[in-house]
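CORE FACILITY INTAKE
Project code: CF-77B
Contact: R.S. (postdoc)
Sample description: multi-component assembly, two entities in total
Requested service: structural model of the whole complex
Turnaround: standard
Below are the sequence entries exactly as provided by the requester. Do not edit them.
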Amino acid sequence: MNTLAVLHAAQLVTLAGPGRPRVGAELSDVAIVSHGGMLVRDGVIAALGRSDEIARQMPADAQVVDAGGRVVLPGFIDAHAHPVFGGNRVDEFELRARGASYEEIAAAGGGIRSTVAKTRAASEEELRQQALKHARWFLQCGTTTVEGKSGYGLTLADELKMLRVMRDLDAETPLEFVRTFLGAHAIPEEFRDQPERYVDCVINEMLPQVAAEGLAEYCDIFCERGYFDIETARRILTAAKSHQLRLRMHVDQLTNSGGAALAAELGAATADHLEQTEEDGIEALLRAKVQPVLLPGSVYALGKTRYPRAREMIDAGLAVVLATDFNPGSSQTPSMPMVLSLAATQMKMTPAEGVTAATINAAYSLHRGDRIGSLEPGKLANFAIFDCTDYRELAYYFGIPQTHSVYVKGERVFAATS
Amino acid sequence: MNTLAVLHAAQLVTLAGPGRPRVGAELSDVAIVSHGGMLVRDGVIAALGRSDEIARQMPADAQVVDAGGRVVLPGFIDAHAHPVFGGNRVDEFELRARGASYEEIAAAGGGIRSTVAKTRAASEEELRQQALKHARWFLQCGTTTVEGKSGYGLTLADELKMLRVMRDLDAETPLEFVRTFLGAHAIPEEFRDQPERYVDCVINEMLPQVAAEGLAEYCDIFCERGYFDIETARRILTAAKSHQLRLRMHVDQLTNSGGAALAAELGAATADHLEQTEEDGIEALLRAKVQPVLLPGSVYALGKTRYPRAREMIDAGLAVVLATDFNPGSSQTPSMPMVLSLAATQMKMTPAEGVTAATINAAYSLHRGDRIGSLEPGKLANFAIFDCTDYRELAYYFGIPQTHSVYVKGERVFAATS
């Protein structure tokens, strides 16, 4: 038996609590063991307590990880990301700095479509190499599970290619990838005049093949004016459900088009973005227990000021999730600490609410609440040590990595330069 | 002779150009050598050119730094920071997330005053240890020169203590500290009912001693309603000039109180913040050739949306500077790449304008334009290698350190985990 003892944590932020997503005031009540320690056996958490108690319990041959008065947290769970793509969009980024809007760039053939062209042109190995760099970034920021979407292929072959890259990186790297099929991310150029034929392709060709190969656990859609309207979204997602895929949805990002209500109607696991969602949308999510996934990185990076109504959602009793939305067009950050900063400064979420939304609530949104997202006996020993003495410093400082080291199943997978 | 050859830079962003701050359209025109290389002799840049040319020129015993197809930039120069302080303000940060305003917290005895209490209570050695951590952060983000202000002591002894910490860190670490006396940062608690007595203390006790000990090169003041008004600022800064200190000023951050005009009147090197500055202020700065120092980190971290008018300033012909304003109350980032991201996404500055403002223009604002801020023969070999192939990626990605390694006077002072 391989035993690891984590000792001398100034704060062991366990997030222990009821075995379900945290709602309302619970979000602001993170469980912390001061001067904490943790015992890990074969990659699974065996015990938690005060460091001196853990030191007494540990076997003589235990490998000791001295947290050195730092903060220990569960690995972050990033429940909405686009970690596989070809190239980047720095040219477009510069155009936006010069005043062009995201919508103008998209209308001129840029936006998602430009990444689609680069992703199609890239070989599976080229995509894998680029995504490997992103995987290292996620780990370096303390993220140990990332949800990853396809959606830059938009042909059967290219969507499968993206999903295979994530399947392979999940096996080859310590980062866990939860795969989501997002064939309905945009209407590709070649179907511009016959969008309904692309929808047929998604339903009749892509979904059955993705399901048959077991390449995705979730299906997502960009439900938005000019992309996929409510009726089309209902058709695609209903088909996805018939293939036993669970649902996530991009809704109400640019306009309030009733996407939150559709997510509720279809029993989606999550409704993501929600920048334009109003009271009725919040109520619909609440009734159907859909978890909102808030993505402040994309509001920031697009230079907008309308953030989703995090406070109203929390106060209404929703089990809010925070994620990076890492992607080359509208949110170029893989950093959950950066998202905690944005949540605190732009959405008035406290550091405790942020951390809860970025760990245990995110785990439940991916149906993994029993395995990851908190430090409790029986859960995987996925954790990060941060170079601070108070977990709130993760949201307080920004733009600087405070990661000291990261562990997945009890194995060290990243260590910063000392 | 100790020779270093930097080879194989995808882009060697030299910022070479006229020997003066860059104004207007010049800000968007950064000089770049593709496939570049650089020869360094005894810490000073000797030659720049194509990598293969540099390889031919280099002596046999040259130490080779293989940039490996990455981007090389001059070290960032952070021309406005508060790197020495006791404690932090995470409690207050949490209160702000819960809805309290910066002004409310200051009125309740928080804000600058709470850091003053912690800074006074800290020994010189404790302050030095904490600032050493900050110094490592700056270097890690690619900054090689930082302007550092006193201003959390507000007694003669405590102001001298802060300045000595910076003097010592300048000598002991590779990071260059340019020291600024900011005794007029706030009226300390004990002078609350007799603010004019504190002003007398600054003028008659602090300034002469700071000057006599050679502890500061600049004098700064927080010119703002409730802090130091225009008349008082004029008195203090005029006294500072009589001690041969150059001037920098915090102006127009919270209200437009005519601070920009005063900076112009007094011939200050810089006028900093300027969130509330209007056309007349811009014109005044232009006439007097005062450089504006823009601090988007503090707008962001305070959750505000009114950024300074960077575009109008550039278009008017001002030699704009970007800086972090690193401090525990309103801008908790030591990262210039984070500031480049903020400048692009929130102030519509292009990556080229950002980089110019963060290097050569910042150098001139500190009267060091002949020594640092660009990669040109005769200048110090202070440079950073970033793990990307296009310098615009520094502004494009955010929250993630892209620093590969950092060099000061040709010596490597930071290397990221590979």
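Facility notes:
- Chain A has two domains: 3-74+373-415, 76-365.
- Chain A has a mean pLDDT of 96.
Invoice: internal transfer
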